[in-house]
Amino acid sequence: METWEISTLANGLRIVTTPMPSTQAVSVNIFVGVGSRSEPARLNGITHFLEHMVFKGTERRPDAILIAQEIEGAGGTLNAYTNKEFTCYWNIVPYDRFETALDVAADMLLNSKLEQSEIERECPVVQQELKRNHDNPGAWAGRLIGTAVYGEQPSGWDVGGPVELIPTWSRPDFIEHIGEWYKPSNIVLSVAGNVTHQQVVQLATPLFSGMQDGSLPSIVPYDGSVTGQRVVTDSRAIDQCTMYLGLPIFGRDDPDRFAIRIMNDVLGAGMSSRLFREVRERRGLAYSIGSGYGYLADAGVFTISAGVNRDKLRETISVCLEETEKLLTQTVPPEELRKAKDHNIGRFRLSLETAFSLGQRHGELLLTKGVIESVEQVVGQIEAVTADEVTAVAKRVIVREKLHCAVVGPGLDEGEIEAAMA
Predict the structure, then answer these.
(1) 188 bridge partner residues
(2) Whole-angstrom Cα distance, residue 275 to residue 37?
(3) Which of 51, 157, 230, 281 is surrounded by the fewest CB atoms within 10 Å?
(4) DSSP H/E element including 139
């Protein structure tokens, strides 16, 4: 049975633990509620850059090698990631090294030296990471569709920011950014694995209690009237096109969030989905085809993506839209609805098998929603979705006038893509 326990320190920092007595591992995850949509335009990308800098050394562990050796020397792994709304620093170690893992994570978060010389040394590394993303057609097309749907507003800015901004920041910018956002009430420590709640709280309290809480800056709300280009293309001399169709959807707490899970499953999740059967199996238009969605607090994007030959691009877009719009007029049959639910529930359960996955899930939910929905609560909500609710959410989301398309590939013609979307 899934269990977790939550405590809040006097300064507002929340701790959630998920005991897993049968595992050999412990996963330490520190979530901070700051991402690229929290940044002013001149600092777009600094949250991601700061994520890099936290690994560069503290007073007690003066360089990146010493930090890495403490975790990797125990056979563990450490890393971090940034998205539009939060940053996560995490490590996984054998359970008997938990005390070290927590101490390292807290030291990195609270005591990073942020030396100007290290900032300058890391600058080209961050730029290379962003350039690598640009050089990956699939990743870049995914970035372009998000920018197209959200438009020129903080929700639509790239997490890494523009490459040319990276060298313009210095140590005071990082110190100010930390001072504004790294407040204890904006932080969740999530630990999962072979530990007890008492053990975690006892060790974490002296590490984090010295943090001073305070108010947070406001975040610019999503403005649905702001959008980017309807069609965005990036022509390159490569063999294949990566195509994304994108539509704006609602935020992560919307009542329709379970209905869209099932709609997405029916349409484009896995080899049994409608898009896979029609686009790949029946017509042979694409090897890679599927759909998905991502949320912010107050907005989201639903996408259909495919990797196709240039001469099949227009047909693929048309077929994807035809298949998608069947959801507007044809109720999903009971047998297909049942299969979609079973597939969705099964994948959800199997995604939560490890200390890392549970530590990530519970930390993210506590930070972004303030509550943790149990697995069975989620399963119950999925089971409750009706075919009529799938149709209703399709009608809410699938609107041609709001459709965007991003393509990276050879010899692209925006007029041709517009025609396929008409």
Answers:
(1) 14, 31
(2) 32
(3) 281
(4) helix 137-150
The band of 1, judged by pLDDT with boundaries at 50, 70 and 90, is low
Q: Identity (one letter) of the amino acid at 10?
A: A
Do 409 and 282 touch, CB atoms closer than 8 A?
A: no
Instruction: Give the architecture (CATH level 2) of 231-421.
Output: 2-Layer Sandwich (3.30)
Domain boundaries, the chain: 5-208, 231-421
Q: Taking the domain 5-208, which CATH number applies?
A: 3.30.830.10
Q: 5-208 with 231-421: one CATH topology?
A: yes
Cα–Cα nearest to 189, from 111, 104, 89, 98: 89
12 closest CA partner among 366, 373, 372, 374? 366
Dihedral (CA of 223, 225, 231, 234) sign: negative
- Which tens digits make up the pLDDT trace of 107-122? 999 999 999 999 999 9
Please tell me what DSSP assigns to residue 284.
-
Residue from 5, 39, 51, 383 carrying the catalytic annotation: 51
Give catalytic status of residue 414 as yes or no: no
Question: SS3 letters for 151-206?
Answer: CCCHHHCCCCCCHHHHHHCCHHHHHHHHHHHCCHHHEEEEEEECCCHHHHHHHHHH
Interatomic CA distance for residues 26 and 93, integer angstroms: 6
> What are the structure tokens assigned to 369, written together?
């929603």
> Tell me, what amino acid is at 40?
P
CB atoms inside a 10 Å sphere around CB 40: 11
Burial 205-218 (b: 16+ CB within 10 A, else e): eebbeebeeeeeee
Mean pLDDT of the chain: 97
Q: Please, which residues bridge with residue 31 across strands? A: 88, 188
- Supply the pLDDT for residue 407: 98
What is the distance between the alpha carbons of residues 3 and 196, in angstroms, rounded to a whole number?
11
Calpha distance 143→180 (Å, rounded): 27
* Integer Cα distance of 147 and 244 in angstroms: 12
45 contacts 36 by C-beta, under 8 angstroms? yes
Query: What are the pLDDT digits (tens) for 231-261?
Result: 999 999 999 999 999 999 999 999 999 999 9
**pLDDT value at 269 more than 90:** yes
CA distance 192 to 151: 38
d(CA 323, CA 176): 49
Q: Residues 247, 400: contact at Cβ < 8 Å? A: no
Rounded to 10°, the helix 313-329/387-397 angle is: 130
